[in-house]
Design goal:
By secondary structure, this protein is mainly α. It has a domain at 21-51. The chain is 34% helix and 0% strand. The protein has helices at 8-13, 32-35, 38-47, 81-94. The chain is elongated, with a radius of gyration of 27 Å.
Length: 99
């Protein structure tokens, strides 16, 4: 009630009749017209710099100042190249890989 006044309690008693579309949950509430307007987005970024630091991957469409390094070791396969080829041939002959 402090934020919305006496009418604010109505939303608690009776939720709005605006269900979230299940096929659009990840983009619900995003104003795409504003998101696609470079003038409005520039104003938003300039007016709210605290919300758009360099470490925020969702902040701006530009490339972040530093990217994460994730070292990946190749998997350790116990088979030789010939054994892998033989296994592939046997699977192709005995298993329907298209189903």
């Amino acid at each position: 009630m402090v934020q919305d006044g006496p009418r604010g309690i109505q939303a608690l008693l009776q939720p709005p009749d605006d269900p979230i579309p299940t096929d659009e949950v990840e983009s619900y509430g995003i104003d795409w017209a504003v998101n696609d307007d470079p003038t409005l987005m520039t104003h938003l970024l300039e007016s709210n710099p605290q919300d758009w630091d360099d470490q925020n991957p969702f902040g701006t469409p530009s490339t972040p100042s530093h990217l994460s390094h994730v070292p990946c070791d190749p998997p350790n396969c116990p088979f030789t190249n010939q054994e892998v080829e033989l296994l592939g041939q046997l699977l192709h002959q005995n298993v329907d890989l298209s189903s």
